[in-house]
Design goal:
Number of strands: 17
CATH architecture of the largest domain: 3-Layer(aba) Sandwich
Order of helices and strands: HEHHEEEEEHHEEEEHHEHHEEEEHEHEHH
Strand content: 25-35%
Number of domains: 2
Distance between the termini: 80 Å
């Protein structure tokens, strides 16, 4: 009897597996047919695409940085010419690539909107295309992208794309690429904060937290604040700009947040909030006692679906520096986000010691480098060479430190 039950079960499992295989093959065939009919159109405004755009961005694995509200805030601040690419097969929208044109040294470069301040880019794809990206004819896709951008851009440069993101391969992965010099770092959330910490060096992490807590209590304690009022959020963002400017100046580095457009963009994100999703929210460590009301550390985070990204952070170097307030703030943010539907905390791009201490996952990023014109071929070759050179330097700590010192001296 037991054998018969197992046989029946195996037959059911085989049937289920065959059905799943059949469905997968149908999806792949559907994508191949769709690629054959694919029509790519270029738009110089966001508004005509809003309904389709918002439908595609509901995909949990699409990047916050390609969401409609994020891009709208950037466009309102920078006013760069747009070349948004929409791919359709019949009446079905297959993808949207939110692209703007940036002129650099006489070269027209088509880049993701807001690429300079994004931590991960994916593009926006329909479920069928997203799930079966491996079946896409990349040569045909590249040819149609070139045709759509001809006369508008010299180079399509889509940066910081993970080839695979949370077990899904990106549809753009077959296009000409170069590995970006920057990697990103993530902390997956488990059922509880305690279990999440077990992915790290728990003993060291807890010891550091206790030391930081004692030092903060010694000056009167602290409050972890996440203001609900919009005015307070904007005030904290302005404080971040001041602290970061002082930090860059002390290092002899250019302030990437100094221009009025970037400040307007980030302020524009503060009030972009739908349900649990938000463009930008400030979190801070406010001291009590001896430094009553002073902000020791602050950070700006964004959320889309179950993915939270730390966009930036700063500390007041004149306050409780020995308590490592920036790292202590991460503890507060990460512990506070548990139980709120978050699955992944993203520390963003750039290799820094504190990120490695918190993040057990390291994600490689790649740049699509697709020349559109003769000038674009030269620009693409230069981008590949520069990117590989930066990667070579960053992979060698001594050389990287030397390069940073030179950069600080020449400004």
């Amino acid at each position: 009897m037991q054998t018969q039950r197992l046989d029946v079960l195996e037959q059911k499992l085989d049937a289920a597996a065959q059905a799943e295989t059949g469905i997968s093959r149908l999806r792949q065939l559907s994508v191949k047919l769709a690629m054959g009919e694919l029509d790519i159109q270029l738009f110089d405004r966001m508004e005509p695409l809003e309904e389709e755009w918002r439908a595609l961005e509901r995909d949990n694995l699409s990047s916050l940085h390609q969401s409609y509200d994020w891009c709208a805030a950037w466009v309102a601040a920078f006013h760069r010419p747009l070349a948004i690419l929409r791919g359709r097969s019949g009446n079905h929208t297959a993808f949207i690539l939110p692209v703007e044109i940036v002129a650099a040294r006489g070269v027209r470069i088509a880049k993701f909107i807001g690429a300079d301040h994004s931590n991960i880019n994916t593009g926006l794809f329909s479920q069928a295309f997203a799930e079966d990206g491996d079946t896409v004819n990349s040569h045909r896709l590249a040819a149609r992208l070139r045709a759509a951008l001809a006369g508008k851009a010299d180079l399509l440069l889509l940066q910081n794309i993970p080839l695979e993101w949370r077990s899904r391969r990106n549809m753009l992965a077959g296009l000409p690429m170069v590995q970006n010099q920057n990697h990103a770092y993530q902390l997956p959330f488990l059922d509880t904060f305690e279990k999440t910490l077990q992915q790290l060096n728990v003993k060291s992490r807890r010891k550091k937290f206790r030391t930081q807590s004692r030092r903060l209590e010694a000056v009167g304690g602290f409050d972890y604040i996440a203001p609900e009022a919009s005015a307070e959020q904007h005030e904290l963002l302005d404080m971040f700009f001041r602290l970061k400017s002082a930090r860059f100046a002390s290092l002899g580095l250019p302030d990437v947040f100094a221009d009025s457009e970037t400040k307007a963009f980030l302020h524009g994100l503060i009030d972009k909030r739908i349900g649990d999703n938000f463009g930008l929210q400030m979190r801070a460590l406010r001291l009590k006692g001896e430094y009553e009301g002073r902000i020791a550390a602050l950070s700006g985070i964004s959320r889309k679906g179950d993915h939270v990204i730390c966009q930036f952070g700063a500390i007041d170097e004149d306050l409780v520096a020995d308590a490592s307030p920036g790292e202590f703030l991460f503890w507060q943010m990460i512990s506070g986000l548990h139980g709120k539907g978050v699955a992944l905390f993203d520390f963003g791009l750039g290799d820094q010691t504190y990120k490695r201490s918190w993040a057990p996952v390291e994600t490689d990023h790649y740049d699509v480098v697709l020349p559109i014109s003769g000038i674009g071929i030269a620009a693409g070759t230069a981008h590949r060479a520069i990117t590989r050179g930066k990667a070579f330097i960053k992979a060698r700590p001594g050389l990287y430190k030397f390069a940073q010192n030179i950069r600080a001296k020449i400004g």
